Amino acid sequence: MKKSIFIILAVFIAVAAHAQPFQKGTTTANLGIGLGTALGGLGKARPAISASVDHGMWDIGGPGVVSLGGYVGNTGYKYTSGSYTAKWNYIVVGARGAYHYNGFKNVPNLDVYGGLMLGYNIVSYSSTGSDAGYANNYGSGLGLSAFLGGRWFFSDNIGAYAELGYGVSHLNVGVTFKF
């Protein structure tokens, strides 16, 4: 898994030697599926899903744009043993800011970026069966995370993205839309 992540990152950096689609006033929305997670639970995991939005706010000195946006993601686990069932649910909601490097002029379909997210992880747990009756919200809390990503646009408004960082998963991949 680590080798795959580094290969994807190397490809983004190598291809990024020439990009620039993200400008002040640009809005993008990502819908993705996550691979790998630091959020824990026993048993079978639900696929991690996430959505994020970024809006280009400021051109800054040098070749780049700063964006502000939001993030929401969800995953969970279910463990069953006999008549006992336990469920964990994780929802991460956050505000994020990113720097989009647009100094590469030869590949206008590529957007490379990195940023920080201040998020809140909402954790809930419930159980049923022989040891039932336990339900609680534990482990919920505020956190700061970093992310690094890239988008490739197949048309003016639709593309694919990959993003490394902490949310509901370590790697998110999916579809991106530009408005």
Structure in words:
The chain is mainly beta. It has one domain (2-178): Porin (Beta Barrel), CATH 2.40.160.20. It is built from one helix and ten strands, in the order H-E-E-E-E-E-E-E-E-E-E. It has one helix at 2-15; strands at residues 27-35, 44-45, 48-60, 64-81, 84-101, 110-128, 135-136, 141-153, 158-165, 171-178. Strands 1-3-4-5-6-8-9-10 form an eight-stranded antiparallel beta barrel. Strand 4 and strand 5 form a beta hairpin. The radius of gyration is 18 Å and the shape is elongated. The two termini are 33 Å apart. Residues 11-20 have low confidence and may be disordered.
Quick one: how many beta strands? 10
Helix content: under 10%
Annotation field: number of helices: 1
CA radius of gyration is: 18 Å
How would you sum up the global shape? elongated
CATH C-level: Mainly Beta
Number of structurally distinct domains: 1
CATH topology: Porin
Q: What structural class results from the helix and strand content?
A: mainly beta
Could you tell me how far the N terminus lies from the C terminus, measured between alpha carbons in angstroms?
Answer: 33 Å
Give a nutshell description of this structure.
This protein is mainly beta. It is built from 1 helix and 10 strands; from the N terminus they run H-E-E-E-E-E-E-E-E-E-E. 8% of the residues lie in helices and 61% in strands.
Characteristics of this structure?
179 residues; mainly beta; 8-stranded antiparallel β-barrel
